[in-house]
Amino acid sequence: MSEAARPTLQSQDDSARSAEAGFLWDFWYPALRSREIRGNKLATAMLLEVPLLLGRTTDGKAFAMRDSCPHRGIPLSYGRFDGKTVECSYHGWRFDACTAQCVEIPSLTSQDKLKVDRVFAGHYPCEERDGYVWVYMSQRGRAMAENVPAAPKLPVFSEKYKITHLACELPSHVDQGIIGLMDPAHGPFVHQSWFWRSRHSIHEKQKQFEPIPNGFRMSPHSPSSNSAPYQLLKKMTGAPVTTTIDFVLPNIRFEEIHSGKLWFSSRATVTPVRRDLCRIDFVAAWNLFFLPTSVFRIFGEKFLKQDQQTMVQQAEGLKHSPNLMLIDDADRPAKWYFALKANLLESRRTGASMQHPMDGPVTLRWKS
Ligand code: FES
Ligand SMILES: [Fe+2]
Q1: How far apart are CA 339 and CA 333, in angstroms?
Q2: DSSP secondary structure string for all residues of 256-321
Q3: Distance CA 155, CA 254 (A)
Q4: CA–centroid distance, residue 93 to ligand 1 (Å)
Q5: Counting beta carbons within 10 angstroms of the beta carbon of residue 169, is it exposed (0 to 12), middle (13 to 18) or buried (19 or more)?
């Protein structure tokens, strides 16, 4: 193979592999929690099957490089970091952490013509927000994506609030994780508990949905009357409670609850790590003075564990490639998700603007 042919073949392999994996590139994904990077310590993570090296420079700027030396491919995470440059453990090539540009190749003599500054390791735009290190997974890797949008931010509605983070891994493809997240019909079966609801409280519901850019919204409504926490909130403020839930590509569910001056805001993301592994990152903030973080975490963890256990069991079944069904209306949000994803990929392929699968507000009915 000629020197020049190699990168091309490599990138064709990469894009074929990732197309088949069903990942959405050119979006922000949370790689890890901010607190997992301390001082000059390097951290590693994986997003969309790309191994990443993460750190923070002495100036406090988080960075994300592909965890692979462009010389012989050894993970750069075995190397050293001095707060500014990452040094490979194999032959000591050094890279600027923020640009991934090579700054030194120790073996070169004064006779060598190789332009060190033309050598780059892979790197990705990186931002810290809401306690996470976000990485913009640009498919073109080091050819730093232009027009990178701002990283997602959890909406908050007062100066003072509590905030907490939860996470859990699911042994599933990201699509299964996402349709699990937006599935209205599993609640009474998977999340049975005295404080929330039981299978006996199942009743018919109807909710209005509307299209939003790259996603859909469950229009502002009064939440389910069979949930104790909402009842409590209403009693506290005397004001009506409204909930709005948005789903936006590639993987984000936002929920906002307001009652008078009190609010609760949460965001769940389902992030593809590998094609057989994804992770839910859940962050919630609120100014409900009567809700201590510790109490919220107990319930939140229980919820996530229930979902996790279900997904572990489902993965057992999915190993045997069964035929699956999506039914109306309870699985309609899942259908919209798949259509949004397909339409986005199609619009990127053709350059035409993206078709939205909904042509206006829709009312869905189901029992849960
Ligand atoms: S493999 Fe990294 S410097 Fe050679
Ligand atoms: Fe659930």
Answers
A1: 10
A2: EEEETTEEEEEEEEEEEEETTEEEEEEEEEE--TT--HHHHHHHHHHHHHHHHHHHHHHHHHHTT-
A3: 9
A4: 6
A5: middle
Question: What confidence tens digit (pLDDT) does each residue in 204-244 have?
Answer: 999 999 999 999 999 998 876 656 777 788 888 888 899 99
User: Which is nearest to 257 in space by CA: 271, 274, 239, 275?
Assistant: 239
Instruction: Give the Cα separation of 30 and 269 in Å (integer).
Output: 8
The atom of ligand 1 lying closest to the CA of 79 is 2
- What ligand has the least distance to the C-alpha of 302? 2
Q: Is 88 close to ligand 1, i.e. is its CB under 6 Å away?
A: yes
For residue 356 and ligand 1, the question of a CB distance below 6 A is answered with no
Question: What percent of the chain stands above pLDDT 90?
Answer: 80
Q: Provide the phi-psi class of 190: left if phi over 0, else alpha when psi is between -120 and 50, else beta.
A: alpha
Q: Which tens digit of pLDDT belongs to each residue from 12-33?
A: 556 666 667 999 999 999 999 9
Residue 309 half-sphere exposure, CB side, CA atoms within 13 Å? 10
Looking at the CA of 179, name the nearest ligand. 2
Q: For residue 92, which ligand has an atom nearest its CA?
A: 1
Q: Tens of pLDDT along 253-312?
A: 999 999 999 999 999 999 999 999 999 999 999 999 889 999 999 999 999 999 999 999
Burial grade of 325 (CB within 10 A; 0-12, 13-18, 19 or more)? exposed
Amino acid identity for residue 224 in this structure: S
Sign of torsion over alpha carbons 187, 191, 196, 198: positive
H helices present in the chain, as ranges: 5-21, 174-181, 187-190, 228-237, 293-318, 332-350
Strand order in the sheet with 28-33: 28-33, 132-136, 126-129
Percent pLDDT > 70 in the chain is: 91
- What whole-number distance in Å separates Cα of residue 341 and Cα of residue 249? 7
Local structure of 60: helix, strand or coil: coil
Q: Cβ atoms within 10 A of the Cβ of 92, count? A: 14
* Closest residue by CA, ligand 1 atom 4: 91
Nearest to 209 by CA among 256, 182, 246, 250: 246
